[in-house]
């Protein structure tokens, strides 16, 4: 029984490494708090099993360990697994957010130099001299064939593909809409839908200028 407790305790410590490493990668993020709690609970159970391996556990202690195990397993199912699935299907070929950032920067520079105010209309021809692509300004194109919506002054530019290409969203970095619960629910449904074959992430095709 002592050996079994020791092995189980070490196993909980190993499990705690996963969410613990996730927290260490982004110490300033609020979303790392659930991972920190999960790592703390798993480590606490591991420590308890190892230090109490020579003594019998009460019924309450067994219930607490079981409850902690179920909570952490539920957290892994609801958050950790979808996050790793999203990371697997995320590709660096999606250059659309960089293009949106370029358009947004050009729009802000144009509005500043032209003394425009929030709500003024901006056209593609207005921004061509500011995008820095060739002497006449070559306007960027979405690598997956989406259409760019410049928007008015003060509005972030958008791509017609938007979030439909999960997990390679065609949105301006930091311009995601919806609460963190909505974003989590989107990732959860899309991740398990991908695993179960109910949906397939859209392939990221790169457009070329050749025939």
Report on this model:
This protein has 211 residues and is mainly alpha-helical. It has two domains: 2-89; 96-195, no CATH class. The protein has helices spanning 2-25, 33-51, 59-89, 96-113, 124-127, 180-195; strands at 148-149, 158-159. A hairpin with an 8-residue loop joins strand 1 (148-149) and strand 2.
The percentage of residues in β strands lies in under 5%
Class of secondary structure makeup = mainly alpha
Measure the end-to-end span.
Answer: 71 Å
Order of helices and strands: HHHHHEEH
Instruction: Please count the beta strands (DSSP E, at least 2 residues each).
Output: 2
Domain count, please report it.
2
In the sheet with the most strands, the strands line up as: 1-2
Helical coverage, percent range: 40-55%
The general outline is elongated
| Low-confidence region ranges | 204-211
Radius of gyration: 25 Å
Could you tell me the mean pLDDT? 79
List the helices and strands and how they pair.
Elements: H1 2-25, H2 33-51, H3 59-89, H4 96-113, H5 124-127, E1 148-149, E2 158-159, H6 180-195
Antiparallel strand pairs: 1-2
Helix pairs in contact: 1-2, 2-3, 3-6
């Amino acid at each position: 029984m002592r050996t079994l407790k020791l092995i189980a305790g070490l196993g909980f410590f190993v499990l705690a490494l996963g969410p613990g490493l996730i927290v260490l990668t982004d110490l300033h993020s609020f979303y790392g708090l659930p991972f920190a709690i999960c790592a703390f609970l798993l480590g606490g159970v591991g420590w308890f099993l190892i230090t109490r391996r020579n003594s019998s556990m009460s019924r309450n202690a067994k219930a607490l360990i079981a409850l902690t195990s179920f909570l952490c397993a539920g957290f892994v199912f609801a958050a950790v697994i979808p996050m790793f699935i999203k990371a697997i299907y995320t590709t660096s070929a999606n250059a659309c957010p960089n293009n949106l950032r370029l358009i947004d920067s050009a729009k802000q520079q144009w509005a500043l130099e032209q003394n425009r105010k929030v709500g003024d209309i901006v056209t593609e021809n207005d921004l061509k001299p500011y995008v820095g692509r060739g002497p006449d300004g070559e306007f960027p194109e979405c690598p997956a064939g989406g259409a760019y919506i410049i928007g008015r002054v003060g509005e972030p530019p958008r791509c017609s593909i938007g979030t439909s290409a999960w997990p390679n969203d065609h949105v301006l970095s930091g311009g995601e809409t919806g609460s963190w619960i909505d974003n989590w629910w989107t990732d959860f449904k899309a991740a398990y839908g991908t695993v179960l074959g109910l949906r397939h992430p859209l392939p990221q095709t790169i457009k070329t200028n050749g025939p």
